[in-house]
Amino acid sequence: MSDDQTRQGDAGNGDQPSGYQSEGDRWTQGPEVTPGKKSRSEAIAGWPGDDAETLRERQRLAQIEMMDHWIGGVLTEQRRTRRWKLFFRLMLIAIVLASLFTTFYSLFWDSPSVAAPAQRHLGIVDVNGVIASDSPANAERIIQGLSRAWEAENAAAVVLHINSPGGSPVQSQRIYAEIMRLRDQGDKPIIAVIEDIGASGAYYIAAAADEIVASPVSLVGSIGVIYAGFGFEEAIERIGVERRVLTAGDNKAFLDPFQPLDDGAEQFWQGVLSQTHSQFIDDVRAGRGDRLSDSPDIFSGLIWSGEQSIELGLVDQLGSLEQLSRDQVGNTDWVDYTPSLDPFERFTRRFTQMAAEALGVSAPSSPMRF
């Protein structure tokens, strides 16, 4: 076989040399291009020498790729949204379950009247913190605790466990009146035990008890009434703000901190404070009786140590809750009859209070404090 025939046979078997281009094949025509990755815009524009059909095919594939990327992004965002919705739903379910648990716990497992011990004990009622309608030391809660301890058959005494700087005159008077009512029945003693501090409205409450016990270093007294405020009338003029207050009644805004307090308004308000102070003094005298000394400083608003209070008749004896329990029941055995606090209720009450303050619709508390 000749060399020409051999070359023709190799070509017929498909063994073509590198760089060979067939004259009739449109895919192999045009300049040789070095293989490499092209950008999306270059891919859409096509390769040099592409005909219209090839270019359309490349554009269609590029559009499909872009659509795949867009769909993938949408699906990712939907998955993220579903995860957040699931998270908030689980949080809502957890809050509802927690509120139900605390409610059932307070109803069925946390009632001292249901599981009161058979042996003699002290019935404790806590007065802890500022005395106010929106605080744990509010009149409704403390009076309910007093009723529970008073009705417990094996409670040898009702003990007001006080650690409070005072607070609302109205709340303090409500608790005082209930203690005096129970005290007049005479079934069991009511004893106030002052821990760190029993001042102002807290001492108002303690004065209704049959007996007051305090530590030698407890702070006792502060029998007085206070009003505190600020005057911003000059500051508001300096910063160029106009105060607009509309009232029906000449003295409706006499305690507005952005208006000056004239002599007549000051005398009137001082009279209100003095009258409230007189009620405070009368109730302390009614509760303590002849045990009070004749010192004029007792009702001046001063605060005393427990040891000084013994000499003034503000306190009956120095001691502690453990010592009182040993004296009354022979051992350190007591039961807390203070109604438990519902955490969910506290959270919702605090949230509502903050929202009302932010909107400017919260009810103002009394400007006077014991």
Q: Which descriptors would you attach to this protein?
A:
single chain; alpha/beta; 2-enoyl-CoA Hydratase, Chain A, domain 1; two-stranded antiparallel ribbon; 13% strand; Peptidase S49; protease; transmembrane helix; serine-type peptidase activity; Peptidase_S49
What does this structure look like?
The chain crosses the membrane at residues 86-109. By secondary structure, the chain is of the alpha/beta class. Helices cover 47% and strands 13% of the residues. The protein has 2 domains: 38-109; 120-227 and 262-369, 2-enoyl-CoA Hydratase, Chain A, domain 1. Strands 1, 2, 3, 4, 5, 7, 8 and 9 form an 8-stranded mixed sheet that branches. Strands 6-10 form a two-stranded antiparallel sheet.
Present the secondary structure layout:
Blueprint: H1 3-12, H2 40-45, H3 52-109, E1 121-128, H4 139-151, E2 155-164, H5 169-185, E3 190-199, H6 201-206, E4 211-214, E5 219-221, E6 226-227, H7 233-238, H8 263-288, E7 303-305, H9 306-312, E8 317-318, H10 321-329, E9 334-336, H11 343-359, E10 368-369
Parallel strand pairs: 1-2, 1-9, 2-3, 3-4, 3-5, 4-8
Antiparallel strand pairs: 5-7, 6-10
Organism: Halovibrio variabilis
Region (Disordered): 1-53
Keywords: Hydrolase, Membrane, Protease, Serine protease, Transmembrane, Transmembrane helix
